[in-house]
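Fold Annotation — chain and its backbone
Encoding — discrete vocabulary of local shapes
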Amino acid sequence: MSRKKPAVDDRSFWQLPLLSALPLCFMSMLLAMSCWLVAPSALALPLPATSTVGALFSFAGERPANLGVAEGKFAPCPSTPNCVSSQSQDPAHAIAPLRYATAPEVAFDTLKATLQGQPRVSLLTATADYIRAEFTSSIMGFVDDVEFYLDRDADRIQVRSASRLGESDLGVNRKRIEAIRATLEP
């Protein structure tokens, strides 16, 4: 008596061979890892701003309500390591403010022009002494909030850069500020 093999169409998903289910499992794991383990800005690969992948994913999070400058101070960094601030007393979050050798207004205008030349940046606020920008990663659409404050009393530009979502940013916020510093400082 010979046993007849069932047709492929008759088998359920769980009866499919392991190799047939691997692509689905791999994509599910990749999506989960990018949501929970990968730093928000670490996926900022050089892709076109209107990439198809970027349109598929958007992990922007909600805009924080505590941004801005109050009495010359930014909001403090959260306890997570994905934030840097030139006003932080905590060594893990501290970063040096930006220096300039020109007139303060010229330095701040140069900073604005530098930010406008960056990919995937939206300037939300740009006044004579305050800039608020959003940097968006190209693949997953993670957003970092970046602020600059022209501190005329200290002759410096104070800075704060923080990821909205996630725990670690693999140093992306710090690297971003240092790259901006390299274009501005003498």
Residues 18-36 form the longest helix (19 residues). The mean pLDDT is 80. Residues 5 and 175 are 59 Å apart (CA to CA). The two ends are 88 Å apart (CA to CA).
